Amino acid sequence: MHVALVAPETVHHREPPLHPARERFERVATLLAECGHRVTVLTTPWWEADLEAFETDGVTYRVVADAPGRGYRLRLPLALRRAAPDVVHVDAGFSAAVGPARYGARLARVPVVGEFYDLAFDADAVTGVDRLVAPAETVRTRLREAGATAADVSVVPDPVDLDLIEATPPATAHEDDIVFAGRLDSDGNLESLLLALAELRAFDWSATVVGDGPLRSEHRRQARELRIDDRVRFVGDLDRRERVGVYRAARAFVQTARRRVFAEELLWALASGCVGVVEYHADSGAHELVERRDRGLRTTDETELVDALRSLSEYERRDRDADFDEYDRAAVAARLEECYRAAGAEG
Questions:
Q1: 124 with 220, same domain?
Q2: Which of 68, 98, 318, 336 is spaced 20 to 30 Å from 303 by Cα?
């Protein structure tokens, strides 16, 4: 199948930290290419060479205009017609591109699918596509409130690489740890976990904090003031393999972020055998990953979080959980393909 992805900007256009929706769209592109599909991203150039197209990791990035904006939107319909895809998949976070993408799809006589990876979106974009993709039920609910029908929304989560998990040995230095991973900012809400851990000073535990951000110094200071800094390690950003090693050795992963459309790090940790502890927030879909799971705990306040942490000793340690095999890359790619065919793609 030839998939045309529409995004005026990609992860290659900006320095980290990157918008989660742009990272998600890049994952879609590489996942489809990995599974043998032809993938063309219609975008603007980030490379310096005078090239109309640039290929990397099996994905072709093709220039529509020199920069995002009116010129990109005007040229997009004809660019889609020339590309002759089997389906158009547009990043609806760029709401102004949805209309031109729909027009281009009509010229090419193929369906258009909208990617909605946020809880805030343009309502007109919801009704401007043939099918919608959401990463979680939380987003699907918001889309339905904006006018979409449940039958028109495909929930396609982010994937994990089971081969990488199985090939990565547990990092013994983090054995039995309680792990937090995420950006250290106000949305990350690490302070909630630190306060809960401070209530358990009398118990034997250790914790690892993976990630960086503007509040790192403040969180380290909070740990000192709570007198738990000798048991909380701040290890900074780690690459994916290093993170998996930590998760496979740890006992539990705690998700306290106030806003996380799809809790990617939680999923990697769960697939790596961690018990999942999720503090519920209305603007987060993290709780969906632990609901109705034997090794999942959902909390709604500080007291419940403390109780959940206290109960972790009741769970056996694992370094792999086959219950999450449905999130493997091939399985998620198959869900994308099903979405495209439900929209009317025939390639």
A1: no
A2: 318
